[in-house]
Fold:
Amino acid sequence: MKSLTTARGNPYVTMVWLTLLGSFMLFLFLIMIFSVRIHGLGWEKIELPPSFYISSVCILISSVTLHLSRISLRNEEFRTVYFWLTLTLLLAIGFGVLQCIGWNNLFIRNSPASHTSMAFTYLISGLHFLHIVLGLGALAWLWNGFRKNVRYVDSYVYTLNPKTATVYQTATIFWHFLGILWLLLFCVLWVNQP
Structure:
């Protein structure tokens, strides 16, 4: 007899997809408002800090390393999975640090209340950062599990746990979504440069 998760799909994965749809709708709404306001009177263009460019590269590479960890997991190369997850987690942390550096650079130039375009920049990148914190939590949980189960047999048993499989699948979906979303948001913010 098939379990509920194999017969009908994993409900947690479905919930993640619905959450991502809601998040996408929120960001799409903000992008639409941004697109209308950019042509209004008194709108000031903002030069993006260099750290936003570097963070974009970090999140793009982190999606690649996470995908490589998934390939290694399918091949039951658990030490390689741990290596790729470590690299993914470091790149994700680097993304967060670079975002904070970028906000600091923006704040030094202008406070968020100085004009609407600055407030939008903080709002869009800040909401994305909140999503990043959730993704970091899931990646850290996976990384810690593989760190504790270094031996092949332990790793094999660990990956057979339905909870581990679910977190791995949902974290992967969520992180790839965040990477694509950031690249879209970065392009929107980049259009607003002088």
About this structure: Residues 16-40+49-191 form a domain with the Four Helix Bundle (Hemerythrin (Met), subunit A) fold (CATH 1.20.120.80).
